[in-house]
Write a structure and sequence with these properties.
Number of strands of chain A: 0
Largest sheet of chain B: none
Largest sheet of chain A: none
Order of helices and strands of chain B: HHHHHHHHH
Strand content of chain A: under 5%
Order of helices and strands of chain A: HHHHHHHHHHHHH
Strand content of chain B: under 5%
Largest interface: A-B, 26 and 23 residues
Shape of chain B: elongated
Number of strands of chain B: 0
Oligomer: heterodimer
Radius of gyration of chain A: 21 Å
Radius of gyration of chain B: 33 Å
Distance between the termini of chain A: 38 Å
Distance between the termini of chain B: 107 Å
Number of helices of chain B: 9
Number of helices of chain A: 13
Shape of chain A: globular
């Protein structure tokens, strides 16, 4: 902080604002770069899984492909269809990327390295991410198109259903950590057992429920009926082009990274090192997030799309009962002397 | 005027505008979206009162779930705005009477001797690190645990009753039970028949000879 003193004096009373903005930029810029390279990683990973090479022409080993894609999307025209509601049509992508970025305010990267260390961090994340569905709904309605509308209805029903299972899985995390603060949740997983003292061991069924619900919440394959290329063309963003379309894409991938980070923080010990003795650091968090993200790509390359009624059945009749039963199990188990954590 | 005051007046203005638009917007979808805006702004006001748990719960429950389902229904309505406008003026007088009665009732309560807002001391600012969640949890699960549980059971009964009243299972819908589907074994579907291999018949004479 001493180094920044002259800068602080220069800005005077506006300093807190400038400093917060600087921190926001320090989070959002790397995030955007990660999103760009996540799309590249997805194409490469799926390529290798399907025994082909993936993009390898732009730049060394195809590494500049995402930059080329971004430039292409930025120079394309944004077409507003006839009969669409222009204001809501433009608002929808903004509404879908806002939650994907705003939720990062409470994500802890290391001890005390967090933009806003709020007590109700977990609730904040749930509230903000639950607003993401508005982008999809409004896009579908404002496009004035049947396919877009069908996609948005499917997506709304799916997101609302899986949020409940997700919320119950998080109740388990709350019981383990006695706190809604995400930094505190990570600190509580610090034990002598290394990776066995993390939440995923006692909460294993909830860990699986959370991971799968995360895939469903982000509308990724095999839960991507909202897009469903073979049935409803591309779902809610079928009428979007150029940068407006790209913003939906950014939001989807930013949401994937967000859900992976939350999984890493709540079930996989955040920045803690898996082996006792090795130092805990931000790099561990990165590794865990990358591992979860790889699962997302792996699912997409492996599983066929769920049928719509099967998705609903899985959410309501399988996941919610599983989490409810496990809540009772954990609650009872914690009261016995056999509780090792 | 402090920053908190400025934020309060800003949010209050937005809230009033959004509330007005909820009842004046002609398109029901727009009205529902203004209602969402009103909820989010109200959550901001609660945040100013240091009630962060309630504020976030408002966004989580009303914005994140209730309004989504609301929009879901409103978007599917086939609305003819002209037909809805029919008879607007005929109903104006009864509506004004009802509204007038409501205003008088509210005035009696709010301006009476039971609701002295101006007589209340402003809430003391909470110390740093005060957790609303802890305080609420203590109230709900320690101090008022029986009334709270009673209310929850009442709600549960209401849910069961509402579902039981509206649930109509179609008799003719064909549905595969996934449990049965998963339990299927090869032996249920494929029958392997053992049979003696037959000798190939003597070469037929009809083919062209090579």
């Amino acid at each position: 902080m001493e180094l920044l003193a002259p800068v602080e004096a220069f800005f005077g009373p506006a300093w807190p604002l400038v400093w917060s903005l600087a921190k926001i930029v320090a989070i959002v810029l790397p995030l955007m770069v990660s999103v760009a390279y996540l799309t590249f990683a997805e194409r490469k990973v799926i390529g290798y899984m399907q025994v082909r090479l993936g993009p390898n022409r732009v730049g060394p080993k195809g590494l500049l492909q995402p930059i080329a894609d971004a430039l292409k999307l930025m120079t394309k025209e944004i077409i507003v269809p006839t009969g669409a509601n222009p204001f809501l049509f433009v608002l929808a992508p903004v509404l879908s990327i806002m939650p994907a970025l705003a939720a990062w305010a409470v994500i802890p990267f290391e001890p005390d390295v967090v933009l806003a260390d709020v007590n109700a961090g977990l609730l904040y994340v749930m509230a903000i991410t639950s607003m993401g569905v508005y982008g999809v709904i409004i896009a579908g309605w404002a496009s004035n198109s049947k396919y877009a509308f069908l996609g948005s209805l499917r997506s709304a029903a799916q997101i609302v259903s899986y949020e409940i299972a997700m919320g119950f899985a998080l109740v388990g995390v709350l019981m383990m950590s006695h706190s809604l603060n995400l930094s505190e949740i990570v600190r509580r997983q610090d034990g002598s057992l290394g990776l066995l003292s993390w939440n995923w061991v006692p909460l294993f069924p909830m860990f699986l429920v959370y991971l799968i619900s995360g895939v469903a919440e982000t509308n990724r394959a095999p839960f991507d009926v909202a897009e469903g290329e073979s049935e409803i063309v591309a779902g809610f963003h079928v009428e979007y082009s150029g940068m407006a379309f790209a913003v939906f894409f950014l939001a989807e991938y930013a949401n994937m990274i967000l859900v992976s980070s939350l999984t890493a923080i709540m079930f996989l010990g955040g920045w803690l090192s898996p082996i006792p003795g090795l130092p805990s650091s931000f790099l561990w968090l990165l590794l865990k997030v990358a591992a979860v993200l790889f699962c997302f790509l792996w699912f997409r390359a492996t599983f066929p799309r769920y049928r719509y009624d099967q998705i609903m059945r899985l959410g309501w009749k399988v996941f919610i009962p599983v989490t409810l039963v496990w809540l009772l199990v954990i609650g009872g188990w914690m009261q016995t002397p056999l509780w090792p954590w | 005027m402090s920053i908190a005051d400025a934020v309060f007046y800003g949010f209050a203005a937005i809230l009033l505008f959004a509330g007005l638009r909820v009842i004046t917007a002609r398109n029901p979808v727009h009205a529902a979206l203004y209602l969402v805006l009103a909820f989010v702004t109200a959550a901001g006001l609660w945040m100013l009162l240091e009630a962060e748990f309630l504020a976030i719960a408002l966004v989580l429950v009303y914005v994140g779930a209730v309004m989504v389902l609301f929009l879901f229904v409103v978007m599917m309505l086939d609305i003819n705005l002209d037909r809805m406008r029919e008879g607007y003026w005929d109903w104006l007088v009864p509506a004004l009477v009802v509204a007038g009665i409501m205003v008088v009732e509210m005035a009696v309560i709010l301006a009476g001797r039971y609701f002295r807002v101006e007589g209340l001391a402003p809430p003391a600012p909470k110390p740093d690190g005060f957790s609303n969640t802890d305080a609420l949890g203590r109230l709900l699960y320690v101090d008022y645990v029986y009334p709270f549980e009673l209310a929850s059971v009442l709600l549960l009964v209401a849910i069961v009753a509402a579902i039981a009243l509206t649930l109509r299972a179609r008799k003719d819908s064909r549905y595969v039970d996934p449990a049965v589907q998963v339990a299927v074994r090869r032996a249920d579907r494929v029958r392997l028949v053992a049979m003696v291999s037959e000798k190939p018949a003597a070469p037929a004479a009809e083919g062209p000879t090579s």
